[in-house]
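Page 42, continued from yesterday. The earlier attempt failed because a stray header line got pasted into the input along with the sequence. Redoing it now with the clean sequence only.
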Amino acid sequence: MLGNGDFKGARKMALSNVPSLLNTIRSGSEITFSSTSCGYMIKHEYSHFLSIPGAEEVAPHIFDIFEFLRNLSESGNLKLNLKEVPLKAAYFAPCHLRALGIGLPAVEILRSVPGLQLDNIEADCCGMGGAFGFKKEKYEISQEIGKDLKEAIDRLKPQIILSDCEACRMQIRHLTGSKVLHPIQILRDALL
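This time it went through. C-alpha cells are written below.
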C-alpha cells in the first residue's frame, strides 16, 4: 500500500497490526519475518514514516529470520546438525535487507551447510521495486534496472538462486528462467 502511495490504507493496516505485535512481544516472544520488505516496513516505516503508536516498542523485537538465527548462534543457543546439500547456489541481497543494515545473515548461516557452494551476486537491484515492476508502463525500465543482475547471474552459472525478497525472486525468475528460492528453503533441506 505504501509503495503505491496509499498512505491511508498503509496506516490503517499498521494500526491494526501493531496491537497484535505488541501483545506478542509483551508476552515474552520475539517476532521473525521472512520478507525483507515487510520486515523493513514494520521495523522502520511504521514508526518513522507512519507515526504508529507502539511501533517503536515493536521495532527492537522484530528480526529477519536469518538475523534471529545468527543471534542465536552467536549466543551459543543454536546447534545445527546439517546434512550435505551438494549444490552450486548464488545469493542476491535485496535492497530492503541492505537497508536494514544487518549484513548478510543468510549467507553467514548457509556457509555452514556442507556441500553448498554459495556465491554472493554483485549487483545493485533486481528492478522490481515492489509493485513498480508489475506495472505495464514500467516494464522496460524494470528490465533495464535488472540487466546487471542477470549478467552477474549468467557469469556465475549457479544451479539455483537465493533471495530473501519475494519480489526479487519473481523478477530473477523472469529475467533468467532459473529456479529461485528463499534461503530458508535450503536450510530446511539441510535439516531434514
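Notes: The mean pLDDT is 94.
Reminder to self: strip header lines before submitting.
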